[in-house]
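Bug report

Summary: structure tokens for DUF6879 domain-containing protein differ between web form and batch submission.
Environment: batch mode, default settings.
Steps: 1) Submit the sequence below via batch. 2) Compare with the web form result.

Sequence submitted:
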Amino acid sequence: MSTNESEALRQFVAGEPVDMAWFDNWLGMIRHATKEGRRFSRVRVVSTPLTDYSRFGVFCSEHTNAAGEDIRYLVRGDAAGLPDYDYWLFDSSKLVRMHFDDEENFLGGEVIDDPAVIVKHNYWRDAAWHKAVRRDEFAAEQGSWRVERP
């Protein structure tokens, strides 16, 4: 997590206005790509109750959805049969499995080019997509996801 992202997370958890300038490059890339007809979509599998970081992710996904990405949410209990790790599929043909340490720090991505493994991940992506709910619906279901005060 970048220093600016860490500060934005701190602001979010504290209930302060969040400076989203750290996110501008990513949002601009999404806007540009979707304007050219590319599709950005993902399913986030989350545990409930949401951690501060997951609540922050829901907050940020409002911005990415507005930029053209379609982020949906799936509660971990509804994700039976899906892998227990993060991965990205690019154009349904390029697979990158994400690796994290025990503190959830990103360690890097592993490019996997075995066609059978890629097909299986496409299946999992589609299964997750059909079970997941749209970001706004998920946020509404979670109630007070923005700021929790004692």
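Above is the batch result. After comparison, the two runs are identical; trailing whitespace caused the diff. Residues 3-141 form one domain. The chain has a mean pLDDT of 90.
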